[in-house]
Amino acid sequence: MVHLLKYERMSAVARPLGRMLACAIEMLNGQIGAELMVVAVPLFPSKERQRGYNQAVLLADAALAKLKETQPEWKLRAAHSVIRRVRDTESQFALTTHGRRRNLKGAFAVRDGATLAGREVLLVDDIYTTGATARECARVLRRAGAAKVWVATLARAQREMVEFWDAEQEQGSFKDTALR
After folding, report:
1. Number of domains comprising the chain
2. CB pairs under 8 A, 24+ apart, for 155-159?
3. What is the pTM assigned to this prediction?
4. DSSP-derived secondary structure letter, 39
5. Nearest to 130 by CA among 176, 82, 172
6. Whole domain around residue 53: which residue ranges?
7. Cβ atoms of residues 128 and 97 within 8 Å
8. Which of 2, 43, 83, 146 has the CB geometry, 3.0–4.6 Å to 141, for a possible disulfide?
9. Which PANTHER family match (predicted)?
10. Collapsing DSSP states into helix, strand and coil, what is residue 110?
């Protein structure tokens, strides 16, 4: 379903997926602060125009709507514009953990005038693979004054060794890869 949302332009699946994400976020009850800024991982503007939407924003908004119903005592507000992607990056799909971190270094910035001092932030993304995106966004948010950054993702990619067979060479090799 994440693939449908992200690559097949089926934005309608974001609502039920976001509501599922809200159920997981509810497990933080008692751990998170009374006020929480909900921030979706931003896409580079040209990528968002190409896709037609930011899937993380759709997931975050659906989760937020559900949480406002089920957790009325939580003071939640969407603050997606707090962070922006300032540099277009290469696709993370085939990169190693180190390559992903290097690729994202300096790719995000907090918008001028954003007030984060002492605030708790819930960062929402679609997939957690190596943590490089979450780590870089959290670093930028913390440097801007956020007291704590929680990360919620819809899915976690598993890494495993996959054997690739070269029929011409009659030999196999193993590669560490993320399942998608």
Report:
1. 1
2. 155/2, 155/126, 155/127, 155/128, 156/127, 156/128, 156/129, 157/127, 157/128, 157/129, 159/129, 159/130
3. 0.83
4. E
5. 176
6. 2-178
7. no
8. 146
9. DNA UTILIZATION PROTEIN YHGH
10. strand
